[in-house]
Protein backbone atom coordinates (compact mmCIF):
# COMPACT_ATOMS: atom_id res chain seq x y z
CA UNK A 1 0.00 0.00 0.00
CA UNK A 2 1.34 3.45 -0.91
CA UNK A 3 1.84 5.59 2.14
CA UNK A 4 1.42 9.33 2.01
CA UNK A 5 4.74 11.21 2.07
CA UNK A 6 5.34 13.87 4.66
CA UNK A 7 3.97 17.27 3.76
CA UNK A 8 2.93 20.50 5.39
CA UNK A 9 -0.84 21.07 5.79
CA UNK A 10 -2.43 23.78 3.71
CA UNK A 11 -1.96 27.21 5.15
CA UNK A 12 -5.00 29.41 4.54
CA UNK A 13 -5.73 33.07 5.00
CA UNK A 14 -9.20 33.79 6.34
CA UNK A 15 -10.89 36.88 5.00
CA UNK A 16 -14.32 38.21 6.03
CA UNK A 17 -16.63 39.29 3.22
CA UNK A 18 -19.25 42.08 3.61
CA UNK A 19 -21.90 39.39 3.97
CA UNK A 20 -20.12 38.08 7.06
CA UNK A 21 -19.10 34.72 5.51
CA UNK A 22 -15.45 33.84 5.87
CA UNK A 23 -13.60 32.77 2.70
CA UNK A 24 -10.26 31.05 2.35
CA UNK A 25 -7.25 32.05 0.29
CA UNK A 26 -4.85 29.13 -0.07
CA UNK A 27 -1.12 29.76 0.07
CA UNK A 28 1.54 27.73 -1.69
CA UNK A 29 2.04 24.27 -0.30
CA UNK A 30 5.43 22.62 -0.17
CA UNK A 31 5.17 19.49 -2.30
CA UNK A 32 7.83 16.79 -1.81
CA UNK A 33 9.93 16.13 -4.86
CA UNK A 34 8.89 13.29 -7.15
CA UNK A 35 5.21 13.28 -6.16
CA UNK A 36 2.96 13.58 -9.23
CA UNK A 37 -0.74 13.03 -10.23
CA UNK A 38 -4.07 14.36 -9.03
CA UNK A 39 -4.78 11.19 -7.03
CA UNK A 40 -1.47 11.00 -5.27
CA UNK A 41 -1.44 11.02 -1.46
CA UNK A 42 -0.07 14.56 -1.45
CA UNK A 43 -2.99 16.01 -3.38
CA UNK A 44 -5.51 14.00 -1.34
CA UNK A 45 -4.04 15.41 1.84
CA UNK A 46 -4.04 18.90 0.36
CA UNK A 47 -7.75 18.73 -0.42
CA UNK A 48 -8.49 17.31 3.02
CA UNK A 49 -6.65 20.20 4.72
CA UNK A 50 -8.49 22.84 2.71
CA UNK A 51 -11.88 21.20 3.28
CA UNK A 52 -11.31 21.01 7.00
CA UNK A 53 -10.27 24.66 7.19
CA UNK A 54 -13.30 25.70 5.15
CA UNK A 55 -15.70 23.83 7.43
CA UNK A 56 -14.22 25.54 10.45
CA UNK A 57 -14.45 28.97 8.82
CA UNK A 58 -18.00 28.94 7.42
CA UNK A 59 -20.79 29.51 10.00
CA UNK A 60 -23.43 26.77 10.46
CA UNK A 61 -26.31 26.80 7.98
CA UNK A 62 -28.87 27.71 10.65
CA UNK A 63 -26.77 30.74 11.66
CA UNK A 64 -26.53 31.93 8.05
CA UNK A 65 -30.29 31.39 7.59
CA UNK A 66 -30.96 33.57 10.62
CA UNK A 67 -29.07 36.39 8.89
CA UNK A 68 -31.08 35.86 5.72
CA UNK A 69 -28.14 34.47 3.72
CA UNK A 70 -29.93 31.15 3.12
CA UNK A 71 -33.68 31.56 2.44
CA UNK A 72 -36.16 28.93 3.60
CA UNK A 73 -38.08 27.09 0.95
CA UNK A 74 -41.90 27.49 0.78
CA UNK A 75 -42.28 23.77 1.50
CA UNK A 76 -40.18 24.11 4.66
CA UNK A 77 -42.23 27.09 5.82
CA UNK A 78 -45.48 25.16 5.26
CA UNK A 79 -44.22 22.18 7.26
CA UNK A 80 -43.00 24.48 10.04
CA UNK A 81 -46.38 26.22 10.37
CA UNK A 82 -48.23 22.90 10.42
CA UNK A 83 -45.95 21.60 13.16
CA UNK A 84 -46.88 24.42 15.57
CA UNK A 85 -49.16 23.21 18.36
CA UNK A 86 -52.89 24.00 18.13
CA UNK A 87 -55.11 25.23 20.97
CA UNK A 88 -58.86 24.67 20.63
CA UNK A 89 -61.50 26.13 22.94
CA UNK A 90 -64.32 23.54 23.09
CA UNK A 91 -67.51 25.26 24.24
CA UNK A 92 -70.53 23.39 25.60
CA UNK A 93 -73.96 24.93 26.19
CA UNK A 94 -74.29 22.97 29.44
CA UNK A 95 -73.06 24.04 32.88
CA UNK A 96 -69.87 21.98 32.72
CA UNK A 97 -67.72 22.73 35.74
CA UNK A 98 -70.68 24.18 37.66
CA UNK A 99 -73.33 21.46 37.79
CA UNK A 100 -72.14 17.99 38.91
CA UNK A 101 -74.83 16.39 36.71
CA UNK A 102 -72.63 17.18 33.71
CA UNK A 103 -69.39 15.83 35.20
CA UNK A 104 -69.61 12.49 33.30
CA UNK A 105 -70.22 14.44 30.11
CA UNK A 106 -67.18 16.64 30.70
CA UNK A 107 -64.98 13.61 31.32
CA UNK A 108 -66.30 11.91 28.17
CA UNK A 109 -65.42 14.94 26.02
CA UNK A 110 -61.91 14.98 27.47
CA UNK A 111 -61.44 11.28 26.63
CA UNK A 112 -62.85 11.91 23.18
CA UNK A 113 -60.35 14.72 22.55
CA UNK A 114 -57.34 12.66 23.68
CA UNK A 115 -58.31 9.89 21.27
CA UNK A 116 -58.91 11.90 18.09
CA UNK A 117 -56.76 15.06 17.94
CA UNK A 118 -53.03 15.30 17.31
CA UNK A 119 -50.64 14.77 20.20
CA UNK A 120 -49.62 18.44 20.14
CA UNK A 121 -53.20 19.76 19.97
CA UNK A 122 -54.80 21.00 23.18
CA UNK A 123 -58.58 20.90 23.59
CA UNK A 124 -59.82 22.82 26.64
CA UNK A 125 -63.45 22.06 27.54
CA UNK A 126 -65.62 24.90 28.85
CA UNK A 127 -69.25 25.25 29.87
CA UNK A 128 -71.56 28.17 30.59
CA UNK A 129 -71.54 29.85 34.00
CA UNK A 130 -75.25 29.29 34.58
CA UNK A 131 -78.03 27.26 33.01
CA UNK A 132 -81.76 27.65 33.60
CA UNK A 133 -83.93 24.67 34.49
CA UNK A 134 -86.18 25.89 31.66
CA UNK A 135 -83.40 25.55 29.06
CA UNK A 136 -84.98 22.58 27.27
CA UNK A 137 -88.40 24.15 26.65
CA UNK A 138 -87.74 27.92 26.63
CA UNK A 139 -86.42 29.73 23.56
CA UNK A 140 -85.64 32.74 25.75
CA UNK A 141 -83.50 30.60 28.07
CA UNK A 142 -81.57 29.27 25.08
CA UNK A 143 -81.17 32.82 23.76
CA UNK A 144 -79.56 33.97 27.00
CA UNK A 145 -77.46 30.81 27.02
CA UNK A 146 -76.22 31.74 23.56
CA UNK A 147 -75.04 35.15 24.79
CA UNK A 148 -72.79 33.37 27.29
CA UNK A 149 -71.33 31.28 24.48
CA UNK A 150 -70.70 34.34 22.29
CA UNK A 151 -68.85 36.03 25.16
CA UNK A 152 -66.82 32.85 25.67
CA UNK A 153 -65.77 32.96 22.01
CA UNK A 154 -64.45 36.50 22.46
CA UNK A 155 -62.57 35.38 25.55
CA UNK A 156 -61.05 32.45 23.63
CA UNK A 157 -59.66 34.80 20.99
CA UNK A 158 -58.35 37.22 23.63
CA UNK A 159 -56.53 34.36 25.39
CA UNK A 160 -54.76 33.29 22.22
CA UNK A 161 -56.70 30.19 21.21
CA UNK A 162 -56.45 29.18 17.56
CA UNK A 163 -60.12 28.24 17.13
CA UNK A 164 -63.40 27.67 18.92
CA UNK A 165 -65.48 24.51 18.53
CA UNK A 166 -69.07 24.90 19.74
CA UNK A 167 -70.14 21.43 20.86
CA UNK A 168 -73.89 21.96 20.92
CA UNK A 169 -76.21 20.76 18.15
CA UNK A 170 -78.40 23.86 18.38
CA UNK A 171 -75.49 25.92 16.97
CA UNK A 172 -76.10 28.86 19.33
CA UNK A 173 -75.17 32.37 18.12
CA UNK A 174 -73.40 31.09 15.01
CA UNK A 175 -73.65 34.34 13.06
CA UNK A 176 -72.98 36.52 16.09
CA UNK A 177 -69.81 34.63 16.99
CA UNK A 178 -68.47 34.68 13.44
CA UNK A 179 -69.09 38.40 13.27
CA UNK A 180 -67.31 39.03 16.58
CA UNK A 181 -64.10 36.95 16.37
CA UNK A 182 -61.44 36.44 13.71
CA UNK A 183 -60.35 32.94 14.71
CA UNK A 184 -62.09 29.97 13.04
CA UNK A 185 -65.33 28.88 14.71
CA UNK A 186 -67.07 25.63 13.91
CA UNK A 187 -70.47 24.43 15.11
CA UNK A 188 -71.56 20.87 15.70
CA UNK A 189 -74.80 20.65 13.74
CA UNK A 190 -73.64 22.62 10.71
CA UNK A 191 -70.50 20.49 10.56
CA UNK A 192 -72.42 17.24 11.08
CA UNK A 193 -74.95 17.89 8.33
CA UNK A 194 -72.29 18.77 5.77
CA UNK A 195 -70.18 15.72 6.63
CA UNK A 196 -73.31 13.52 6.54
CA UNK A 197 -73.88 14.70 2.96
CA UNK A 198 -70.30 13.71 2.11
CA UNK A 199 -70.65 10.25 3.64
CA UNK A 200 -74.18 9.44 2.47
CA UNK A 201 -77.03 10.58 0.28
CA UNK A 202 -79.68 11.16 2.97
CA UNK A 203 -79.54 11.59 6.72
CA UNK A 204 -81.92 11.48 9.68
CA UNK A 205 -82.14 13.14 13.09
CA UNK A 206 -82.75 11.20 16.31
CA UNK A 207 -83.53 13.46 19.25
CA UNK A 208 -84.33 13.20 22.95
CA UNK A 209 -87.21 15.72 22.93
CA UNK A 210 -89.82 17.29 20.66
CA UNK A 211 -88.52 20.82 21.28
CA UNK A 212 -85.00 19.80 20.35
CA UNK A 213 -86.17 18.06 17.18
CA UNK A 214 -88.11 21.15 16.10
CA UNK A 215 -84.95 23.23 16.41
CA UNK A 216 -83.00 20.73 14.31
CA UNK A 217 -85.51 20.89 11.47
CA UNK A 218 -85.22 24.68 11.43
CA UNK A 219 -81.44 24.42 11.22
CA UNK A 220 -81.68 22.01 8.29
CA UNK A 221 -83.76 24.59 6.42
CA UNK A 222 -81.41 27.40 7.43
CA UNK A 223 -78.37 25.54 6.07
CA UNK A 224 -80.13 24.45 2.87
CA UNK A 225 -80.06 20.78 3.89
CA UNK A 226 -83.79 20.11 4.28
CA UNK A 227 -83.83 18.18 1.00
CA UNK A 228 -81.30 15.68 2.39
CA UNK A 229 -83.20 15.18 5.66
CA UNK A 230 -85.26 12.08 4.96
CA UNK A 231 -86.53 11.09 8.43
CA UNK A 232 -86.60 12.03 12.10
CA UNK A 233 -86.91 10.03 15.28
CA UNK A 234 -87.66 11.02 18.85
CA UNK A 235 -87.76 9.54 22.31
CA UNK A 236 -88.18 11.26 25.67
CA UNK A 237 -85.30 11.77 28.10
CA UNK A 238 -84.39 14.52 30.54
CA UNK A 239 -81.15 16.42 30.00
CA UNK A 240 -81.26 17.49 33.66
CA UNK A 241 -80.67 13.81 34.56
CA UNK A 242 -78.03 13.15 31.93
CA UNK A 243 -75.60 11.72 34.49
CA UNK A 244 -77.92 8.68 34.55
CA UNK A 245 -77.45 8.35 30.78
CA UNK A 246 -73.82 7.44 31.49
CA UNK A 247 -74.29 5.37 34.64
CA UNK A 248 -77.21 3.30 33.27
CA UNK A 249 -77.21 3.74 29.47
CA UNK A 250 -79.18 0.59 28.58
CA UNK A 251 -82.72 2.04 28.30
CA UNK A 252 -81.47 5.14 26.47
CA UNK A 253 -79.53 3.07 23.93
CA UNK A 254 -82.51 0.78 23.30
CA UNK A 255 -84.81 3.72 22.58
CA UNK A 256 -82.22 5.34 20.34
CA UNK A 257 -81.72 2.16 18.31
CA UNK A 258 -85.46 1.69 17.92
CA UNK A 259 -85.91 5.19 16.47
CA UNK A 260 -82.77 4.94 14.35
CA UNK A 261 -83.90 1.64 12.81
CA UNK A 262 -87.19 3.23 11.81
CA UNK A 263 -85.28 6.09 10.15
CA UNK A 264 -83.16 3.59 8.22
CA UNK A 265 -86.29 1.93 6.83
CA UNK A 266 -87.35 5.37 5.57
CA UNK A 267 -84.13 5.73 3.58
CA UNK A 268 -81.52 7.25 5.90
CA UNK A 269 -77.94 6.06 5.52
CA UNK A 270 -76.45 8.45 8.13
CA UNK A 271 -77.95 9.02 11.60
CA UNK A 272 -77.23 12.27 13.44
CA UNK A 273 -77.90 12.27 17.20
CA UNK A 274 -79.05 15.81 17.96
CA UNK A 275 -77.56 16.29 21.43
CA UNK A 276 -73.92 16.55 22.44
CA UNK A 277 -74.51 14.55 25.62
CA UNK A 278 -76.35 11.82 23.70
CA UNK A 279 -73.51 11.72 21.17
CA UNK A 280 -70.98 11.04 23.92
CA UNK A 281 -73.13 8.30 25.48
CA UNK A 282 -73.32 6.57 22.08
CA UNK A 283 -69.60 6.95 21.56
CA UNK A 284 -68.71 5.64 25.02
CA UNK A 285 -70.84 2.55 24.37
CA UNK A 286 -69.49 1.87 20.89
CA UNK A 287 -72.68 2.61 18.94
CA UNK A 288 -71.23 3.31 15.47
CA UNK A 289 -73.99 1.98 13.22
CA UNK A 290 -77.59 0.87 13.29
CA UNK A 291 -78.94 -1.54 10.66
CA UNK A 292 -76.09 -0.67 8.33
CA UNK A 293 -76.46 3.10 8.65
CA UNK A 294 -73.62 5.13 10.14
CA UNK A 295 -74.17 6.89 13.46
CA UNK A 296 -72.19 10.09 13.02
CA UNK A 297 -69.86 10.97 15.89
CA UNK A 298 -70.41 14.73 15.77
CA UNK A 299 -67.91 15.62 18.51
CA UNK A 300 -65.00 13.80 16.84
CA UNK A 301 -65.88 15.31 13.47
CA UNK A 302 -66.08 18.77 15.03
CA UNK A 303 -62.67 18.49 16.73
CA UNK A 304 -60.85 17.15 13.66
CA UNK A 305 -62.36 19.69 11.27
CA UNK A 306 -61.55 22.52 13.69
CA UNK A 307 -57.97 21.28 13.76
CA UNK A 308 -57.90 21.12 9.95
CA UNK A 309 -59.33 24.62 9.58
CA UNK A 310 -56.57 26.04 11.78
CA UNK A 311 -53.97 24.39 9.54
CA UNK A 312 -55.69 25.75 6.41
CA UNK A 313 -55.59 29.22 7.90
CA UNK A 314 -51.88 28.91 8.64
CA UNK A 315 -50.81 27.42 5.33
CA UNK A 316 -53.29 28.72 2.73
CA UNK A 317 -54.69 31.79 4.45
CA UNK A 318 -58.31 30.66 4.59
CA UNK A 319 -60.29 29.68 7.64
CA UNK A 320 -61.05 32.95 9.41
CA UNK A 321 -64.83 33.10 9.60
CA UNK A 322 -65.53 36.77 10.26
CA UNK A 323 -64.18 40.34 10.37
CA UNK A 324 -64.02 40.37 14.14
CA UNK A 325 -64.46 43.19 16.64
CA UNK A 326 -61.84 44.74 18.88
CA UNK A 327 -62.19 43.84 22.59
CA UNK A 328 -62.86 47.50 23.40
CA UNK A 329 -65.76 47.57 20.91
CA UNK A 330 -67.22 44.38 22.38
CA UNK A 331 -67.00 45.87 25.86
CA UNK A 332 -68.68 49.05 24.66
CA UNK A 333 -71.54 47.06 23.13
CA UNK A 334 -72.03 45.06 26.33
CA UNK A 335 -71.97 48.20 28.46
CA UNK A 336 -74.62 49.78 26.27
CA UNK A 337 -76.97 46.87 26.97
CA UNK A 338 -76.03 46.47 30.63
CA UNK A 339 -74.38 43.08 30.24
CA UNK A 340 -72.10 42.45 33.19
- Which architecture of the largest domain does the CATH hierarchy give at level 2? 3-Layer(aba) Sandwich
Supply the number of structural domains: 2
Q: Low-confidence segments, ≥5 residues, pLDDT <50? A: 1-29
What's the total count of β strands?
A: 11
Percent strand: 5-15%
Mean pLDDT: 84
CATH class of the largest domain: Alpha Beta
Strand order of the largest sheet: 8-7-9-11-10
Please tell me what the overall shape is: globular
Helix count equals 13
> How large, in whole angstroms, is the Cα Rg?
32 Å
What would you call the structural class?
alpha/beta
Give me the strand/helix succession. Answer: EEHHHEHEHEHEHEHEHHEHEEHH
Q: How does the major sheet shape up?
A: 5 strands, mixed
State the end-to-end CA separation.
Answer: 90 Å
- Say what oligomer this is: single chain
Amino acid sequence: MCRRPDFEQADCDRQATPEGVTVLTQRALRKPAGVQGRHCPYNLGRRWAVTRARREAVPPRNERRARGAVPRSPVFETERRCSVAIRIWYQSSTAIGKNPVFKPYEEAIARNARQVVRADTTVDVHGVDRMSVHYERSEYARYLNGISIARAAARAEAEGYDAIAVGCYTDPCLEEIRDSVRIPSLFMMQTSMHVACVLGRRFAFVSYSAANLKKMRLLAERYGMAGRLVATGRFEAQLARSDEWFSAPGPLLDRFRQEAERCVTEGADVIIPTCGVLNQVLRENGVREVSGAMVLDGASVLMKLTEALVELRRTVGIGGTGPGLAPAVLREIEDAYGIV
